[in-house]
Amino acid sequence: MMDALTESWPLLDNPVVWATLVVALFCYGLLIRFCFVERHDQDWFEATQYWHQSIRQMLAALPLLGLLGTITGLTATFIGMARDGGLALQELVTGGISDALFTTQLGLVLVIPGLLLAGLLSHQRRNWMIRSEHEILNRTKD
User: Fold this and answer.
1) Over pLDDT 70: what percentage of the chain?
2) Smallest Cα–Cα separation from 80: which of 71, 92, 69, 72?
3) Of 77, 79, 117, 129, which Cα lies nearest the Cα of 98?
4) Residue with more model confidence, 21 or 87
5) 90: domain range?
6) What whole-number distance in Å separates Cα of residue 137 and Cα of residue 131?
7) In whole angstroms, what is the distance from residue 108 CA to residue 50 CA?
8) Domains contained in the chain, number
9) CB-based burial of residue 110 (10 Å sphere; 0-12 exposed, 13-18 middle, 19+ buried)?
10) pTM of the model as a whole
């Protein structure tokens, strides 16, 4: 099954692509859970407080993983060119550059929706804090 998949999508045999996808899916899972699934209560706020900074750091790693893929793709291309005798190997050059550009694009494309969801989570956390402080003030007045 995996061999058929990598024949159709040859870039899936790149470990940087998989690392980027795993980090992005983990972040998206947490963000969707916190933004849309869980009830916004004290437990939710404490969980978001625990995860909020980690999510932002993992999202910041996505473009860096893309850059790592760029470097590994270009390095593989140059090593192959040196080993096999220069620029005559068009397939080798285009394959390595394709790898490099795809990983960069993947890292950049995956970070944008993640940052938007992280912004929504920050907004929801701020609103929750304001509402909870307002409720405390109203209780103390009564």
Assistant:
1) 82
2) 92
3) 77
4) 21
5) 2-141
6) 10
7) 25
8) 1
9) buried
10) 0.82
